[in-house]
Design brief:
Elements (H helix, E strand, L loop, with lengths): L1 E8 L2 E7 L3 E3 L6 E3 L13 H11 L4 H8 L3 H22 L5 E10 L3 E8 L4 E7 L3 H8 L10 E4 L3 H10 L4 E4 L1 H20 L7 H5 L1 H5 L7 H13 L1 H10 L1
Parallel strand pairs: 5-8, 8-9
Antiparallel strand pairs: 1-2, 3-4, 5-6, 6-7
Helix pairs in contact: 1-3, 2-3, 4-5, 6-10, 9-10
């Protein structure tokens, strides 16, 4: 009898007891056992439990998953590595060229190491991650697309190397700047104007400092008090009024 840990049922630990038969070959006398198709050779857990650990580890920490299922953290990492490798390999085989390609950078080690993420924005799925955020990094993925002419739109920030890579590898794609990056830069420009009007210290024009948030927010989201605060600022400071209108 062999005990195999399975997926918990209603929060209770479930252990399957497998009656594994042994056989002896009448010709050579060698002893062997029947194959274990549920758990695998010399495994103490079921295949579906290992698959479940992988799915859980995709959305939360290894430590939390190990604690919830009462298994070791190393075992959870092994399950994640195995199924993640299979998933990546399968995605590489079946991956199709997206019609709407998204690309963005993120920092692995802030200020020192960056990577570029490529997404299919039409199907809301990740495609690939490459090291770096320069033209060569972006081009290394774009050149591998099986049908580059299929990409109609490339969505990105205003990073020059990304634009150069897309123009070279995807000449037929329309480049669209992600709205979030545009809004962030516009708000930053408005805040520079606000700081110039405010003066060196907060006490010089306290009403301008206190109105820093109402200037940046969507007017539709303001309550009556905040709308009055915004109207007063725009009425009293023409430079702020012009910058705010340009932002809107």
């Amino acid at each position: 009898r062999q005990k195999k840990l399975d997926i918990p049922v209603h929060g209770q630990t479930l252990i399957l007891v497998l009656h594994k038969r042994r056989f002896r070959c009448p010709e050579c006398g060698k002893v062997f056992t029947e194959p274990d198709e549920v758990c695998g050779w010399r495994r103490r857990t079921t295949e579906r439990l290992r698959q479940q650990l992988y799915e859980e580890a995709r959305h939360q920490t290894i430590k939390r998953v190990a604690s919830a299922y009462q298994v070791g953290e190393r075992f959870v990492r092994e399950c994640f590595a195995r199924y993640a490798a299979e998933h990546i390999e399968m995605a590489g085989v079946t991956k199709d060229t997206p019609q709407i390609l998204g690309m963005d950078e993120y920092s692995v080690r802030k200020g020192h190491r960056y990577q570029t993420l490529f997404c299919d924005l039409g199907l809301h799925r990740r495609l690939e991650v490459v090291d770096g955020r320069d033209k060569g990094s972006a081009r290394s993925y774009l050149q591998k697309l099986s049908q580059p002419e299929k990409v109609r739109v490339a969505v990105m920030d205003m990073h020059g190397p990304y634009r150069a890579a897309v123009e070279e590898c995807l000449p037929d794609a329309e480049i669209v700047v992600d709205k979030m990056h545009v809004v962030r830069l516009v708000n930053r420009a408005l805040d520079k104007v606000r700081l110039r009007v405010q003066g060196r210290g907060r006490k010089e024009r306290p009403e301008v400092y206190e109105g820093r948030y109402v200037l940046l927010r969507d007017p539709a989201d303001l309550n009556e008090e905040e709308k009055q605060q915004l109207d007063k600022l725009l009425r009293e400071y023409s430079e702020l009024r012009r910058a705010w209108k340009l932002k809107e």
